[in-house]
Specification:
Layout lengths: L14 E10 L7 E10 L9 E3 L5 E5 L7 E5 L7 E4 L4 E5 L4 E11 L2 E11 L12 E4 L4 E2 L9 E8 L7 E2 L8 E3 L6 E11 L2 E12 L11
Parallel strand pairs: 3-9, 10-16
Antiparallel strand pairs: 1-2, 4-7, 5-8, 6-7, 8-9, 11-14, 12-15, 13-14, 15-16
């Protein structure tokens, strides 16, 4: 409400704002009285969201409260001591990182206004490449035995990507490389299973295709 003597202003970021209040006497008084007020705004520290990375990296960008001038520090128990290089008023690069979880703190200090905020950076070792095994062609099989390669880093898990309509079969244990899948009897066709290697939120997958054919009817050659 710019015409009100008491109004509110929103959307402020850190910095100095100058606002002007002007008073006029109407169309027959050309004089306008003006007065300015200066307001200094310091937003609270905000270190940003926690970050997780699956790829092998050794440095991350740290971004604090917009338009602020603060300090980044490494705090708590972390895998090793990172090197923090300030790149701007609110930004820095943390380098020399190894897999694990780091805690970084952003702090802002000004006259009458001090605040801190923390965030974490988690670096995962990438899971080993998934290998679900070779495709299989079966004839009237009652069960399918998987043949995945166990991950050297992380854990593995089977899931079903595609199966014939009507099949409601299941695995005996989705965590086994040689898990056994039991299909619904009398349902034939193409099945696609996925083996996924996981570490934390990081994963990669491989698929295997199994085709289960219906056994042909008895051969009847006819009379000699």
């Amino acid at each position: 409400s710019p015409n009100s003597s008491t109004t509110s202003v929103s959307g402020l970021i850190t910095g100095v704002y100058v606002f002007r209040w002007a008073v006029s006497g109407g169309p027959f008084c050309t004089d306008v009285n003006r007065d300015d007020i200066s307001i200094s705004v310091t937003r609270s520290a905000d270190a940003g969201n926690n970050l997780e990375y699956c790829e092998a990296i050794s440095s991350v960008n740290l971004v604090g409260t917009v338009a602020s001038d603060g300090t980044w520090l490494q705090v708590g128990t972390t895998p090793n001591v990172a090197s923090i290089t300030k790149t701007g008023g609110n930004t820095a690069i943390a380098s020399g990182l190894i897999p694990g979880t780091y805690t970084f703190e952003y702090s802002i200090s000004s006259v009458g206004c001090t605040s801190t905020s923390q965030m974490t950076v988690t670096l995962f070792d990438p899971p080993s490449e998934s290998a679900a095994g070779i495709d299989q062609n079966l004839c009237d099989a009652n069960t399918f035995t998987m043949n995945a390669t166990a991950p050297t880093a992380g854990t593995g898990e089977w899931s079903i990507l595609f199966r014939p309509v009507g099949d409601v079969g299941s695995f005996n244990n989705v965590s086994l490389t040689n898990a056994v899948y039991t299909p619904t009897p009398g349902i034939y066709g193409v099945y696609v299973f996925q083996w996924t290697s996981n570490i934390g939120t990081c994963n990669n997958s491989d698929q295997v295709r199994i085709t289960n054919y219906q056994e042909p009817s008895d051969a009847i050659p006819g009379a000699n």
